[in-house]
Amino acid sequence: MSLTAIIGGTGLTRLEQLEIVRRETLTTPYGPPSSALTFGRLTGRDFVFLARHGDPHTIPPHRINYRANLWALEQAGAESVIAAAAVGGIGAEMEPGRLAIPHQIIDYTWGRAGTFFEDGLDHVTHIDFTAPYSEDLRQKLIASARTAGLSVVDGGVYGCTQGPRLETSAEIARMERDGCNLVGMTGMPEAALARELELPYAACAIVANWAAGKSEGEITMAEIERHLARGMADFVKLLTRYAESP
Ligand code: HPA
Fold this sequence. Notes:
CATH topology: Rossmann fold
Bound molecules: hypoxanthine
Mean pLDDT: 96
Low-confidence stretches: none
Strand content: 25-35%
Radius of gyration: 17 Å
Shape: globular
Number of helices: 5
CATH class: Alpha Beta
Distance between the termini: 11 Å
CATH superfamily: Nucleoside phosphorylase domain
Helix content: 25-40%
Structural class: alpha/beta
CATH architecture: 3-Layer(aba) Sandwich
Largest sheet: 11 strands, mixed
Order of helices and strands: EEEEHEEEHEEHEHEH
């Protein structure tokens, strides 16, 4: 049976519901991934779980070795990747606690190692990235969320910022003019690297807070953690339905 990778983000360092079969610590030509890989089963389906920020959660977004993470998952035999991603909500429909399955990305990051195609090449490769997420996997996630009775937004433009600081309200206003309705820090280069490895990739964005300037006052970690606890519990419900689906 096919193996699905789950990349857990902030608020999902371990997937407690997984019946663990084994753990494996891999190295890659790009260095070590963020965490050991945990192989296990959820309602009969095989998964491999990786904690994007490490376990414990100590690696900030700009220091994540995205290449090692994707390489390790592919080496482990993953045939698709579902990413959980904490985000800020920009659009009115993206209220804290909500799940969204984005369909587009704008990359505002800089200086991240973002390709496998740069050293020792015999030709230059440009992957097609018109649609950065797998539409098939996106639709499966949306269907799983709906079967689980969760309200989910179909689509969203994920703006990926460098972090680890949150944005200014002017940056969010600019991103909104660009067409973003979600903001996070880890979607890129993760999605592009998955495409380079030809791994179908989709993300479930969990809205943790209103983005900067979209609510009164400061954004607090307490607010983020509160919404993430609920949102990640919903993500696990979605995943359980996904695991049960054919
Ligand atoms: N901005 C960027 N990344 C985030 C946010 C945010 O407001 N909330 C959670 N991840």
